[in-house]
Design brief:
Layout lengths: L5 H7 L1 E3 L14 E3 L8 H13 L16 H4 L4 E3 L8 H4 L8 H22 L8 H25 L33 H18 L12 H15 L2 H14 L9 H5 L7 E5 L14 E4 L2 E4 L1 E3 L1 H4 L7 H6 E6 L2 E6 L15 E5 H14 L3 H13 L12 H15 L5 H8 L4 E2 L18 E2 L12 H6 L10
Antiparallel strand pairs: 1-2, 3-7, 4-10, 5-6, 8-9, 11-12
Amino acid sequence: MKKNIVRIVLFASLAFTAASCTDELTVMPNDRLVLENYYQSENDFRKGVDYAYDAFKISGYYQQDYSQIIVPDVVSDNLIQNPQGRRSNNDAYNFNFAGDNNSVISIFGAGYAVAARANVVLDKLGNLTPGAFRSNIEAEARGIRAIAHFDIVRRYCKIPTQSADAGTSIGIAYVEKFDPFQMVPRNLNVNQVYDKIIADLLFAEQNITQSGSNAGKLTKPAIQGMLSRVYLYKGDYDNAILWGQKALALSPNVGTIITFKDIWNDTSSDGVLFKILNSGIENIKTGTAYNQTVGGQIKSEYVVDYDFYTKFAPTDIRKSAYIMTSPFLTKTYNNVIKYKQAANKPIEAVDVKYLRTAEVVLNVAEAMFKKGNEAGALGLLNTLRAQRYTGFVPGAEAGQTLWNAIMLERRLELAFETDRFFTLKRLGLPIQRSNFGPESNGAGNPAVMLSLPASSHKWQWPIPQEAINIDPGIQQNPGY
């Protein structure tokens, strides 16, 4: 394994001398050590924040086989391993988690690397004249820092709604200053980490000035939508509703049934609040973790579990937008094509849609249901379903049937976008895979490991052993 934790230092202590990244972030990172005379002009700070956005594309985040674009689905029940693939992420798939398994440890170092790049900018803010530009730069950097820490804490710690003791259980370090020699002791509990994430996001929401039309950078509706997600995880349903509704007021479009497929070939940003841009020049193969093209055929590492596949109705636009049934050698599979179809880019070099309006709709609907507002929850659910099903007739579900409908639409809408594992985790539910095999009709051998009980310690991934070797004061999660 590469020295993932050392990368916290290496990535964080890099700046660049290339031309400023455009909105499409088409300039490949040109790493250089931070110089004392850097971060003087507004252009320097714009480059610095763009460089922090770029960090989401480093190895261990949304790059390489153990990209976090696939791992949370691999370890849940949406996917099944294709025996004709390369068996990437095999240990994660079989719940063989360990402190040297890149699939589940890589985001620890990668997340802190993102936060560190943001902190470099924040530490130099005194060089800027107070005003709108400085406030916006600080808002973006603090928003990026919050997202990075959120991605760490939801993987390596309990989620507040997961169990009665979750909020006071061990958290992570929340790093707020750039220090190339800083260790990251786990000195906060989970509630304290969430409070710091929320504080950064609230500052960002109050101070960000960018237009809501730029999905490649954080904007006010993106921050508001992120607040709805974090508050939902925290179990603060009033605030999940409040901030979700604010986001929906500014950006209500969930993507129409007509334009929905274009979201996934990167010719439309309908309903996308924040995405990680991936240019043809960078050519980061975000889709390779799912499959490759070999001899004109799709060779998948993981395919859609047949039981899950049958939950997509024939009238659901998501079925053809997300999945393609096609042969590879002598077998036929239901392949995930969400990250394979970018127009005018190399194959599999697709933008990562980190947060979409549809998720915010589902966040608010779930929170409303929890607060007893079934009419509001149903109205939002019908709004989303009207743009996903041809000939949709508004539903009239209530009670448990409504809850089941919200959960089904969440699973269908956010399939293969990292959500499934965390939804099960925050609801305290087990993973229960089907008995079907990987072929398009469910034939073949099922997964060896069919279930993970809600009580398992493996819902909290192991801290990288490399981090503990560097700083023995970092506490490993129980059970590893």
